Every structure is written in structure tokens, then in C-alpha cells.
């Protein structure tokens, strides 16, 4: 079983000619087959964590490690991270002009599987996955993220997730901006992938509502650049009832 290990991760971002430390010692282990939710207030550094693992050039790792089965993820190119089995869906996905969804998916699958999927079975795979997500078949011919609505972007992320079957998936605010139906479909996709037992998911979110549809095995509270509490699904219920205040006021929370 593949294991993603984040150890004492410190990350700074350059802004206005100065460097500001955003992540202040993140520790987390995610294994294939597990679903982890990271929940925390806006501005606490959740997206910074996702971008840092993805290798976004804006974020400088000042200390700490990220490994996948002992391999140094931070030393890998973005392509190598994907080939190693990491899937990173960003809060603000980029447009890829001139590349259709269907070509993009096949290229990604080829990179990850090490060989191009047979066209016939591939077309069927994509069709089935799209039907399951209640996506219009015409969507496959559109350019990646070009003019996608919020809901289409998120469905596209889940489509990738289902077709590419990564070892570790990081989903940043996959629930934001979705109406109830889209939220349910996206959640069902995450649950199907979880049920396969092959994918470890790190679900990053500000809102507790997605956790009505997805039951994480572990819930972590993220505040001020680090994980300040961890528990089971009951921790999400507590957050829904009480909010983040306990974790954000005053001096840094220990533990
Ligand atoms: P969250 O996802 O929890 O809302 P972020 O990781 O987006 O938090 O942001 C954490 C902090 O880092 C914020 O103060 C934000 O302004 C700052 N930050 C994040 N990314 C950048 C960036 N690219 N440039 C400048 N500041 C940034
Ligand atoms: Mg934010
Ligand atoms: Mg964010």
C-alpha cells in the first residue's frame, strides 16, 4: 500500500519582495485506501499545502519532507509526481487551450499507466465514467477548463480521478460553489474511488457540508499553518456545531 508522508513541512511564499512563512510544521500520513479531511478557516494555509505538494513554483519549501513510499516527492518534476501516482486537483484549475478533455485524459492515462490505453476500451471507459457522473458526452470534446462552470470543473476533476485511479489524490475545495445535486454527484465519485480501496484521498475543505456525503476515516483541523487536532468523523460534527474559533483564538494550540 502506497503511503504519502509529510514531515515537519515549512513553506514560505514570496510576496511584495518579502518572504512569509505560511506552513509551520505540517505532519501528516495518508495511506492508499484512506480518506482524510483537512478542515480549517480561510487563510490558514490549506491551499498552500496542496500547492506545495503539487510543486507550484510560488511556494518555497524551507524545511521538512514529503515522500511517497520513501521517494522524495519534492525532488520530482510535476510529471514525475503524476507518474508516481499523485493526483492534485487545484482550487483554481488552469485552462488548457486547444486540448480537448478526451485528449487530455488519454495523455494523462498514458503517462500514468506507462502505455497508451487501447482506444476502443478507452472510449468505453470514458463514456461509462461520464454517464455515471451525469455529464453530457459533448463535454469530452471541449477544451480543458475553457469556459467550464464551477460544477463542470469539479465534475472534470472527479472524472480524472475515476479514470486515472491515482494512489494518492489531493482535492482542494472540491465542494466549493457546487449546488446540492453537483455536490452529491461529486461526493459519490469520491466514495466510489474510496470503495475501490486503491486510492488515498486528502480532501481539503472549509465547509463541513460535503462530509454529509463523504465519511472520512480521519479528520484534521488546520489552523495557522499546521494541523492542530486530529480525530475521526466525530471531529467534523464538532466543527459543524462549534466552528473553528476554539482553534484560532489566542496563542498557538499545542498538540
Ligand atoms: P486557505 O487555503 O486555507 O484559505 P491559503 O493557503 O490560500 O489558505 O493562504 C494562506 C496564506 O498565505 C494567506 O495569508 C494568503 O494570503 C497567503 N498566500 C497564499 N498563497 C499566496 C501567494 N501565491 N502569494 C501571496 N500570498 C499567498
Ligand atoms: Mg482560501
Ligand atoms: Mg484554499
UniProtKB/TrEMBL annotation:
The keyword Nucleotide-binding applies. It comes from the Bacteria. Keywords: ATP-binding, Nucleotide-binding. The keyword Nucleotidyltransferase does not apply. Belongs to the ABC transporter superfamily. Ycf16 family. This is Fe-S cluster assembly ATPase SufC. Signal peptide: none annotated. It comes from Streptomyces agglomeratus. Residues 4-249 form the ABC transporter domain. InterPro entries: AAA+_ATPase, ABC_transporter-like_ATP-bd, FeS-cluster_ATPase_SufC, P-loop_NTPase. SMART domains: AAA (SM00382). The lineage of its organism: Bacteria, Bacillati, Actinomycetota, Actinomycetes, Kitasatosporales. GO terms for molecular function: ATP binding; ATP hydrolysis activity.
Amino acid at each position: 500500500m502506497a503511503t504519502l508522508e509529510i514531515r515537519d513541512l515549512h513553506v514560505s511564499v514570496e510576496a511584495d519582495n518579502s518572504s512569509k512563512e505560511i506552513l509551520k510544521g505540517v505532519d501528516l500520513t495518508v495511506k492508499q485506501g484512506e480518506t482524510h479531511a483537512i478542515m480549517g478557516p480561510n487563510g490558514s494555509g490549506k491551499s498552500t499545502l496542496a500547492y506545495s505538494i503539487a510543486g507550484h513554483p510560488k511556494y518555497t519549501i524551507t524545511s521538512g519532507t514529503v515522500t511517497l513510499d520513501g521517494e522524495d516527492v519534492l525532488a520530482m518534476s510535476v510529471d514525475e509526481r503524476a507518474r508516481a501516482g499523485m493526483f492534485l486537483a487545484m482550487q483554481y484549475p488552469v485552462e488548457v487551450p486547444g486540448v480537448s478533455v478526451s485528449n487530455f485524459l488519454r495523455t494523462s492515462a498514458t503517462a500514468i499507466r506507462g502505455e497508451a490505453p487501447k482506444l476502443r476500451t478507452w472510449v468505453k471507459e470514458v463514456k461509462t465514467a461520464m454517464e455515471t457522473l451525469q455529464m453530457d458526452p459533448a463535454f469530452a470534446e471541449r477544451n480543458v477548463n475553457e469556459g467550464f462552470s464551477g460544477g463542470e470543473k469539479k465534475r472534470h476533476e472527479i472524472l480524472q480521478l475515476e479514470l486515472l485511479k491515482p494512489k494518492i489524490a489531493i482535492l482542494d475545495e472540491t465542494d466549493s460553489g457546487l449546488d446540492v445535486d453537483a455536490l452529491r454527484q461529486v461526493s459519490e465519485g469520491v466514495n466510489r474511488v474510496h470503495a475501490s480501496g486503491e486510492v488515498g484521498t486528502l480532501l481539503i475543505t472549509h465547509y463541513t457540508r460535503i462530509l454529509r456525503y463523504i465519511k472520512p476515516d480521519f479528520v484534521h483541523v488546520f489552523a495557522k499553518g499546521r494541523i492542530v487536532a486530529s480525530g475521526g468523523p466525530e471531529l467534523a460534527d464538532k466543527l459543524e456545531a462549534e466552528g473553528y474559533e476554539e482553534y484560532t483564538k489566542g496563542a498557538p494550540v499545542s498538540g
